[in-house]
Amino acid sequence: MAILVTGGAGFIGSNFVLDWLTHEQQPVVVLDKLTYAGNPENLKSIHQDPRFTFVRGDIADRALTSRLLAEHSIQAVVNFAAESHVDRSILGPGEFIQTNVVGTFELLEAVRAYWGGLDASARDAFRFLHVSTDEVYGSLDADAPAFTETHRYEPNSPYSASKAASDHLVRAYHHTYGVPVLTTNCSNNYGPYHFPEKLIPLMILNALAGKPLPVYGDGKNVRDWLYVTDHCSAIRRVLAAGKPGHVYNVGGNNEMTNLEVVQTLCTMLDALRPLPAGRSYWEQVTFVKDRPGHDRRYAIDASLLERELGWKPAETFESGIRKTVAWYLANPQWVEGVVSGNYREWVARQYGS
Ligand code: NAD
Ligand code: TYD
Question: What domains does the chain contain, in order, with CATH numbers?
Answer without folding.
Answer: 2-190+228-251+294-314+341-351 (3.40.50.720)
